[in-house]
Amino acid sequence: MASEKISRVGIIGAGQMGAGIAEVCARAGSDVLVYESTRELTAAGRARILRSLDRGVSSGKLTEREREQATWRLRFTSDLGDFADRQLVVEAIIEDEAVKTEIFAELDRVVTDPNAVLASNTSSIPIMKLGMATEKAERVIGMHFFNPVPVLPLVELVTTLMTSTEVSERAEAFAHDVLGKQVVRSADRSGFVVNALLVPYLLSAVRMVESGFATVEDIDKAMVLGCAHPMGPLKLTDLVGLDTVKAIADSMYEEFKEPLYSPPPLLLRMVEAGRLGKKSGRGFYQYGDVAAR
Ligand code: 3HC
């Protein structure tokens, strides 16, 4: 029996990426249930989505009515048990393998549809490790979105040796036909296509700062004006989050043992100091109040 079209979506985590994915799903007409562990994180996640919807309206991408409709389609919970009827779940929490495997084991017990898509937005953890935390690894897949999710049109789809064709086709149809994203497929290798290329570049820029090769501003200016990138590598590191860049680098280093993936000491010290980039108010640059982030 063919699987039903996906209309009930669950998102785990309402940080930068989870909030963005929840927003695009709600804007595309899905019923969206968002999980956060505490009341404070739920409130912060809801505020993040509302700010982005407002930004969509003020930049002319969304009408007031569409913003209202998207808001009505979003609900929040702190109980994973509420995800039983979901046809697609996208996990978008921190890059911590132990926490993610626990979530997948729990989702596997809770979600009833045998062809439900259990997706991770991980940037670099091999999807197979998450699949093997479940009894039905054929439902587990990578769906990797890009920040800011409402703006960037790509989803990397990562199937494992165990993912079923039905699940991967269902995930691709949702990303492409419902969300209007472009899909590329990647093998289940740490970093997938984009981060395997992007992260060594970001780490190289951090090493340049560390060695006094050039200033933060000049490195960024060079790549914006010299290569027409929308933002330079250090501003982009701030946008992605220094902790996230470190976590991706660690995963890729563990997988390939290549020095180019090894996070430089300056990045480690900044993460230890809580200078995580835009989300914490300070990274390579300083940011204003939360509403401006
Ligand atoms: N909803 C809908 N549209 C929105 C929006 C929202 N919430 N916010 C902004 N937009 C639209 C704007 O309307 C504008 O559209 P237009 O070009 O048609 O007018 C466009 O997005 C750009 O917005 P702004 O003009 O406000 O901002 P900038 O021009 O300064 O661009 C940026 C900001 C989009 C962040 C751009 O600098 C950029 O694309 N930077 C690169 C980001 C990038 O590389 N991300 C990937 C990171 S890697 C990753 O995520 C993977 C992870 O695993 C690490």
From TrEMBL:
<comment type="similarity">
    <text>Belongs to the 3-hydroxyacyl-CoA dehydrogenase family.</text>
</comment>
<comment type="pathway">
    <text>Lipid metabolism; butanoate metabolism.</text>
</comment>
<keyword id="KW-0560">Oxidoreductase</keyword>
<dbReference type="InterPro" id="IPR013328">
    <property type="entry name" value="6PGD_dom2"/>
</dbReference>
<dbReference type="GO" id="GO:0006635">
    <property type="term" value="P:fatty acid beta-oxidation"/>
</dbReference>
<dbReference type="Pfam" id="PF02737">
    <property type="entry name" value="3HCDH_N"/>
</dbReference>
<dbReference type="InterPro" id="IPR022694">
    <property type="entry name" value="3-OHacyl-CoA_DH"/>
</dbReference>
<dbReference type="InterPro" id="IPR008927">
    <property type="entry name" value="6-PGluconate_DH-like_C_sf"/>
</dbReference>
<dbReference type="InterPro" id="IPR006176">
    <property type="entry name" value="3-OHacyl-CoA_DH_NAD-bd"/>
</dbReference>
<dbReference type="Pfam" id="PF00725">
    <property type="entry name" value="3HCDH"/>
</dbReference>
<feature type="site" description="Important for catalytic activity">
    <location>
        <position position="144"/>
    </location>
</feature>
<dbReference type="InterPro" id="IPR006108">
    <property type="entry name" value="3HC_DH_C"/>
</dbReference>
<dbReference type="GO" id="GO:0008691">
    <property type="term" value="F:3-hydroxybutyryl-CoA dehydrogenase activity"/>
</dbReference>
<feature type="domain" description="3-hydroxyacyl-CoA dehydrogenase C-terminal">
    <location>
        <begin position="191"/>
        <end position="287"/>
    </location>
</feature>
<feature type="domain" description="3-hydroxyacyl-CoA dehydrogenase NAD binding">
    <location>
        <begin position="9"/>
        <end position="188"/>
    </location>
</feature>
<dbReference type="InterPro" id="IPR036291">
    <property type="entry name" value="NAD(P)-bd_dom_sf"/>
</dbReference>
<protein>
    <submittedName>
        <fullName>3-hydroxybutyryl-CoA dehydrogenase</fullName>
        <ecNumber>1.1.1.157</ecNumber>
    </submittedName>
</protein>
<dbReference type="GO" id="GO:0070403">
    <property type="term" value="F:NAD+ binding"/>
</dbReference>
